[in-house]
Amino acid sequence: MPQLTIGEIAVEVVRKDIKNLHLGVYPPNGRVRIAAPMRIDDDAVRLFAISKLTWIKKQQVRFRQQERQAKREYVSGESHYYNGKRYILKVITAPPPSRVEIRGKKYIYLYVPAGSSREKRQQVMNQWYRNRLKEQIPGLLEEWQPITGVEVSSWGIKAMKTKWGSCNVREGRIWINLELAKKPTHCIRYILVHEMVHLLERRHNDRFIAYMDRYMPQWRKYKEELNRVILGHVDWN
């Protein structure tokens, strides 16, 4: 059963070697996906989806109403975000190497060779964002590993379309979404701690919530803020 329909909502169903049903609603328009254990029959999956229908609709409305940037062309005058603040981009023709600089409180300067394509300008900006995250994460890990008692074996940064972060529990590895470089530091901190707690508890259950309440009592506030901030444009497939 690769897909089922509940009312007017299409639900993608993926069978996996897992113990429990997992439901996700994903941006930009609220795509619905259920990961189901092999042993659970189709009727049980359908009943599960029906039981979650109100929550699914709520999440879809939230995604549709959330503000998004228009697709970035990386030209002078565009708004770009870093560390939760809005900057105006100025593209400057300059010989290699390409680079990015923040000037004061208002401008981001992008230095690229003449004739650079949109893709090249985007690549330079993304590498700059990646480097800024790489500067922040080690200090945050050093701060939060003693608090949580979690030892992160390795971490990385990658562009993700549906998650702010992810982790590999078995290997103790954490991945952080590149888009977080554009968000306030406390949002980065929240996602990092969220994924660290998943190394203690895989699921979003009462045990997971208890850990989050213990280590970061304000986590719900940060989660809500992260859901409210403007989304960067992504070329969604």
What would you say this structure looks like, in words?
This protein is of the alpha/beta class and 237 residues long. It folds into 2 domains: 3-65, no CATH class; 79-228, Metalloproteases ("zincins"), catalytic domain (Zincin-like, 2-Layer Sandwich), CATH 3.30.2010.10. Helices cover 37% and strands 26% of the residues. It contains 6 helices and 11 strands. It has helices spanning 42-51, 53-65, 118-148, 185-198, 206-215, 219-228, and strands at residues 3-6, 9-16, 22-26, 31-37, 79-82, 85-93, 99-103, 107-112, 154-158, 165-168, 173-177. Strand 10 (165-168) and strand 11 (173-177) form a beta hairpin. It starts with a strand and ends in a 9-residue tail after the last helix. The relative contact order is 0.11.
